[in-house]
């Protein structure tokens, strides 16, 4: 309701005033403030983007790859967009290495083998989108930093349910979109870049909003903004900023430290029920290694997703599984309802 109210306040204002530039920019700034609060950063380290992919493109366009340190390390647990963006950079001279997933997990020690003194940036998905496997960011960051690599974290599947502190975890760059656990709408994603790193990064993905003074309108004077505004391009997706601000405010008000134990409780319940009912999961059984995603193996995941949707239950089909994604408002009864329906669907399928 609150997020809807925020979107409606944009629409009301739009109908009344048409363009309310100052208010729009205020909303974008306050959404950045909420994001900064969520990850333990300051607002000047945060930029807003239309999608996580756009934010990652801004990052990828910011470095010079002509030197010796031109290697990018990604993982098989990365959301494909991350790997595609870096693959597109192969023609700029990067080399790319992919850390493998073995039985649904990544052994932290395997980063040791892939990250070396030629690695510019190590990309770590905090939570694996397919099965919820969670990585120890601080541990991997320490190892990557020892080798002189920057640390990039994709927190899209974690933020809002897992505590994130960019200083404690020693993260250089972090991205997340708002569509999932941050209760936002499509069209908003946020990028954190550590203040000390910002001057080193010169995005070619840029525009007038990335300039020190966007309103100077002087094409002879090109000057990046000194803070994270330099990753801005053009007019932000203002309506999505309204929704994002309110969604993140809800999470900040409740506090991830209070949400997290409930997520763990639901994970334990879901795994127990999945096994009790004869399904299997590819999610880690050890809750300490698990985020909010719980996977269930079913014969035809796309079909199961569509049939559950008809019953008002939203899951996502990803490869061989459907994915449950719990949040603070989900109850064990909701999980039961999803599993009851899934049993029926799978049962019906085997009869037909
Ligand atoms: C972990 C992760 N990273 C990146 C993305 C891509 O986000 P976007 O569509 O905003 O580019 C997703 C989308 O689901 C995701 O789950």
Describe the structure.
The chain folds into 2 domains: 2-254, Type I PLP-dependent aspartate aminotransferase-like (Major domain) (Aspartate Aminotransferase, domain 2); 256-351, Aspartate Aminotransferase, domain 1. Helix content is 39%, strand content 14%. It is built from 10 helices and 10 strands. It has helices at 2-17, 21-39, 52-60, 80-88, 110-114, 137-146, 238-254, 256-276, 301-310, 332-351, and strands spanning 46-49, 71-75, 95-99, 119-125, 150-154, 173-177, 189-193, 293-297, 316-318, 321-325. The strands form 2 sheets. A 7-stranded mixed beta sheet has the order 1-7-6-5-4-2-3, with helices on both faces. A 3-stranded antiparallel beta sheet has the order 8-10-9, covered by helices on one side. The two termini are 41 Å apart. The model has no long low-confidence stretch (mean pLDDT 96). It binds pyridoxal-5'-phosphate. Pyridoxal-5'-phosphate binds at residues 51-53, 79, 81, 125, 129, 154, 156-157, 177, 189.
